Amino acid sequence: MRRVILYIAASLDGYIAGENGGVDWLDSEAAPDDAGNGYEAFLREIDTIVMGYNTYRQVTEELSPGKWVYAGKKTYVLTHRGIANLPEIQFVCQPAERLIETLQQEDGKGIWICGGAKIIHPLLQQNLIDEFRITIIPILLGRGIPLFGALDCRIPLQLISTQKNGNLLELTYRRRAQEKEGK
């Protein structure tokens, strides 16, 4: 079965976006460089990306306007908007957990959960994320959209690795094997 990997940046106080959903704090000084944090190696591990519409909009309008930075990867954008599909981007209207369960049954590499919180939360509730790669950005936002909201369950994890890249720290955790079976 394909691995589902949450790979995301968060502020030191645990937010993935500012109070109004902005990601301007992910500036070029804080952005991880490919050589130091293994981003390019990570991209070789996956062939599918899942994100919500807000994350898609941020990528295409704020972080990398005019250029699709995930070329060569099949991307699914979960949205209720009726948007026409693009060659590598499929806009789908279904629960995140149903999409992930379908994708896990298909052949392929890892599945990257790129964001945002409305996608992450139901996957956590259904225990569908296998690996957590969190890059901690050295900033305290004070408030915003939390990486993990309140959960109805515990999800025990095991620390796999830590990687320091300048002022950034990438933490990699895996869900404990016995917990997935008890889902």
What does this molecule look like?
With 183 residues, this protein is of the alpha/beta class. It contains six helices and ten strands. It has helices at residues 34-37, 39-45, 53-63, 96-105, 117-125, 177-181, and strands at residues 4-11, 15-17, 46-52, 74-78, 89-92, 110-115, 131-137, 145-146, 157-165, 168-175. Strands 5-4-3-6-1-7-10-9 form an eight-stranded mixed sheet. The protein is globular. InterPro entries: DHFR-like_dom_sf, RibDG_C, Riboflavin_Biosynth_HTPR. Residues 3-167 form the Bacterial bifunctional deaminase-reductase C-terminal domain. It holds the Pfam family RibD_C.
Provide the descriptors you would attach to this structure in a database record.
183 residues, alpha/beta, Dihydrofolate Reductase, subunit A, eight-stranded mixed beta sheet, two-stranded antiparallel sheet, 6 helices, 25% helix, 32% strand, globular, disordered C terminus
- Overall geometry comes to globular
CATH architecture label:
3-Layer(aba) Sandwich
The CATH topology is given as Dihydrofolate Reductase, subunit A
Beta-strand content bin: 25-35%
By CATH's scheme, which homologous superfamily applies? Dihydrofolate Reductase, subunit A
Main sheet properties = 8 strands, mixed
Please report the total strand number as a whole number. 10
Order of secondary-structure elements: EEHHEHEEHEHEEEEH
Give the quaternary arrangement of the chains.
single chain
